[in-house]
């Protein structure tokens, strides 16, 4: 070994210097049959070991990342600009509300909302001809005139949102356990790991998008798509090019659910590890982990005001997280003992004033936001409620069940 590699050795000239340094390091000064040269070499080895440990510690503290492509950087800049515009709009709307806020008018408005949701009753029920398994996914389109239903037998059906009349059926595109999202186009994913884009009922498959079951799909307003899977990853897709932009790992177990922030900037994932992860799509960073549920998390949803995140778990509770407080505390602001069995799905209403939950206890519950008191419980399924959605007009709720029925709830 070259002594110059250890800078401090250059200051040690005599055996007395070596002995003094060994004493400082709390090492034996003299060993049996040790020569002066042996002693100096022992000191060099000790100093080298210390330097190696410091280097390993620095490497552990350094954040690991994989550099993205120029295309990904451009996409993140687009998302940044879009999210800033959306957040400014929300902020300006909030300022207007604050200026015109009147406590009496607010209380009347809250009472009117509660009375509105108390009027929801079962309007109709439908089964899918030929369907052989549970209906695991159901969603309105933005126009509120159609409903898409995904079955665990792999089929997809499109229904009229008013009459529940079946308008289209698609089979043999997925093997089983279909998940859906409905925006300007319909997207579906299945147990085999394929994503299909449905444009005017014409399927365009992205084959083997994941190596395992696709558990959630979220359409981004800028013509992107986010998908989660039992392969413990989530992926970001460019729908214009129908290509994968990036893949993200981080969960220790299967990812089951996700939610996209209304600004399009934050993507939230969770699943069988019970940990909620908050990802920043503008930078690709993991912002924080939310740990509070004692069992897997099966449902997530952001409120349209961008402040509240709701999570539903196998521990039968719903937890409410305030995004404005996550810098100070990663604790939930409220826990609702919501159901007697696992919470299968969550949806905030379009105006953000109510939260709707479904459960394996066969119930759909409607909650008042802010005080988190139950407004009403909708009962009509005779088995597990798998999935729910509320239309943008807040006039209809749709639910799907283990017993293979779709139920439409409206104001009587």
UniProtKB/TrEMBL annotation:
GO biological process, one term: mRNA splicing, via spliceosome
Keyword tags: Repeat, WD repeat
UniProt keyword annotation of Repeat present: yes
Keyword Repeat: yes
One cellular component term from this protein's GO annotations in UniProt: U4/U6 x U5 tri-snRNP complex
Segments annotated as WD repeats: 207-247, 248-289, 290-331, 336-377, 378-412
Residue ranges of domain Pre-mRNA processing factor 4 (PRP4)-like in the record: 13-61
MF (Gene Ontology): U4 snRNA binding; U6 snRNA binding
Entry protein name: Pre-mRNA processing factor 4 (PRP4)-like domain-containing protein
């Amino acid at each position: 070994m070259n002594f110059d590699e250890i800078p401090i050795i250059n200051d040690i000239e005599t055996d007395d210097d070596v002995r003094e340094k060994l004493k400082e390091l709390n090492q034996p000064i003299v060993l049996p049959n040790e020569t002066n040269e042996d002693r100096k070499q022992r000191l060099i080895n000790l100093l080298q070991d210390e330097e190696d440990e410091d280097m390993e510690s620095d490497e552990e503290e350094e954040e690991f990342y994989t550099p993205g492509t120029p295309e990904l950087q451009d996409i993140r800049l687009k998302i940044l600009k879009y999210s800033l515009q959306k957040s400014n709009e929300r902020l300006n709307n909030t300022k207007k509300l604050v200026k015109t806020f009147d406590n009496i008018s607010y209380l009347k408005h809250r009472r009117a909302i509660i009375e509105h949701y108390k009027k929801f009753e079962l309007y109709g029920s439908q089964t899918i001809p030929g369907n052989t398994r549970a209906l695991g996914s159901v969603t309105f389109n933005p126009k509120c005139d159609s409903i898409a239903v995904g079955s665990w037998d792999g089929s997809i059906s499109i229904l009229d949102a008013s009459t529940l009349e079946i308008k289209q059926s698609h089979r043999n595109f997925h093997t089983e356990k279909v998940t859906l999202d409905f925006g300007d186009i319909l997207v579906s994913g299945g147990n085999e790991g394929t994503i299909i884009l449905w444009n005017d009922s014409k399927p365009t498959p992205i084959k083997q998008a994941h190596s395992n079951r696709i558990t959630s799909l979220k359409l981004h307003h800028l013509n992107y798509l986010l998908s989660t899977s039992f392969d413990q990853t989530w992926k970001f897709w460019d729908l214009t090019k129908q290509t994968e932009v990036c893949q993200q790992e981080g969960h220790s177990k299967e990812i089951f659910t996700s939610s996209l922030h209304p600004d399009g900037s934050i993507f939230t994932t969770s699943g069988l590890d019970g940990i909620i992860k908050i990802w920043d799509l503008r930078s690709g960073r993991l912002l924080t982990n939310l740990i509070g549920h004692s069992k897997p998390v099966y449902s997530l949803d952001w409120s349209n005001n961008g402040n509240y995140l709701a999570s539903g778990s196998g521990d039968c509770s719903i937890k409410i997280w305030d995004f404005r407080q996550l810098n100070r505390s990663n604790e939930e602001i409220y826990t609702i003992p919501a159901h007697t069995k696992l919470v299968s799905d969550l949806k905030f209403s379009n105006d953000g004033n109510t939260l709707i939950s479904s459960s394996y206890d066969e119930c759909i519950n409607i909650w008042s936001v802010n005080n988190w008191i139950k407004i009403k419980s909708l009962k009509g399924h005779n088995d597990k409620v798998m999935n729910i959605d509320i239309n943008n007009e807040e006039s209809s709720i749709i639910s799907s069940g283990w017993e293979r029925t779709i139920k439409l709830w409206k104001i009587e």
